[in-house]
Design brief:
The chain has 123 residues and is mainly α. It is built from 6 helices and no strands.
Length: 123
């Protein structure tokens, strides 16, 4: 009887998953680097609150900081209300993918900007 109650309340009566298929590490990187623009909220499907974060610069960074804490605790939800949690499966592949995303989304554009503005690294 106890197992039936757990299946109903813990796993849902329709058998739907309570965790999102969104990537936790990508969410964390978006929140860290672009949290004040609400990019992590757009990624999760929360378009309206993402727009409000852009207009208020993440609630003057307070809203973005609170979101960062919620993400780190694993309590952040997507637009469907499903939690985006850390998943240990394929950790190495996720790590490599996130390194590639970081290189293409941050390092390469930053280097291009420095070159276009004429910064000389050599001194």
């Amino acid at each position: 009887m106890n197992e039936i109650i757990q299946q109903i309340f813990v796993f849902g009566s329709k058998g739907t998953s309570k965790t999102s298929d969104k990537d936790f590490f990508l969410l964390l990187v978006l929140c860290l680097l672009f949290g004040f623009f609400g990019m992590h909220r757009f990624y999760c499907g929360k378009i309206k609150s993402g727009i409000f974060m852009i207009l208020t610069f993440g609630g003057l960074f307070i809203w973005a900081f609170v979101d960062l804490i919620i993400v780190c605790l694993g309590e952040f939800t997507d637009a469907e209300g499903k939690k985006i949690t850390y998943n240990k499966q394929n950790i190495f592949m996720k790590f490599l993918r996130n390194i590639v995303i970081f290189i293409f989304c941050f390092l390469i554009p930053t280097t291009v900007i420095f070159v276009l503005l004429g910064f000389n690294i050599e001194g």
